[in-house]
Amino acid sequence: MKKHLSTILLAIFFVLSAIAHYAGFNPVIQFVFSAIAVVLVAGFLGRATESVAHYAGQRLGGFLNATFGNAAELIIAIMLLREGLYDMVKASLTGSIIGNLLLVLGLSIFAGGLKHKVQNFNVALANMNGSLMIVAVIALFVPALFLNTHSITHTQVNMLSLIVAGLLILAYIAWLIFSMVTHKNYLADVKTPKGDGTEEHEEEPAWSKGRSILYLLIATVMTAFVSEWLVGTLETFTESFGFSELFVGAFVVAIIGNAAEHSAAILLAMKNKIGASVEIAVGSSLQIALFVAPVLIFVSFFLGNTMDIVFTTLELVAILVSVFIAKSIIQDGSTNWYEGTLLMVVYIILGVSFYMV
Length: 357
Description:
By secondary structure, the chain is an all-alpha fold.
């Protein structure tokens, strides 16, 4: 009954969002309808992902969720690029990275920890994710350091950005081959036992394999449409509430864009599938840093005005802090609700700081 109700609400708000957009309603009303629709689509996407993960395994299921979840953010960013809003694009990328590492991961660990005292996942996977996050930080820091110390010119930094972007994409492809093919068993999921020593019972999926994949695609397409409608309201929304472009990009856009990951990761963590939750949260951040951001740089190049990979000092510090605390918490392959609380505290600190800019 509850699933039928959520599906009905999803259909209603998707239609309302479409009507508000094409009929030219007040931008704030458009924003509200679109935001609610995205959250409802996220719940639908989460159920489809959980069902796909049953057939494909938690790691592949988590990867699919991160990929489909980031599709909306990629679409939003490309549209912002076409408008020349490069600063908001970088802010949204920053917000996506810190939002996944702190908010999505924090809420997942907290929610899962309330129901299960301690949750475990593959330590090797945790360490590899930590190393990849450090690579992402290095890739963002180096161009900014060389430009700000006047070691290279703006023209040279554009070329450096394209080179770094290409290398990051290669590194990400190599990671997929390593984790999904050559070392698949090495990074396999951890089966968490219940209190009586037996393995956690695997629930039957809600849908068949084919239907799960179909629903995953439908949810992604719906998210893309709602995201497109949302972008057109951002400028008016920002002015109406007096928010800075940095805050809107890093937190408002990022939170809405990450709605799919929020829903799926929390749901899986509460079902004691913390490995899949970590794969969604951390994997999504890595995908943003190692694939989405580099792709956007190449897209901007083909649009005729290359967006460099130089982020502001505030954005770099926020990413560094997020990577540091997230790596320290997941590196032992074990989580509890208090660690989730710590991640959310750091996220709130950054959010308040960005709001005051």
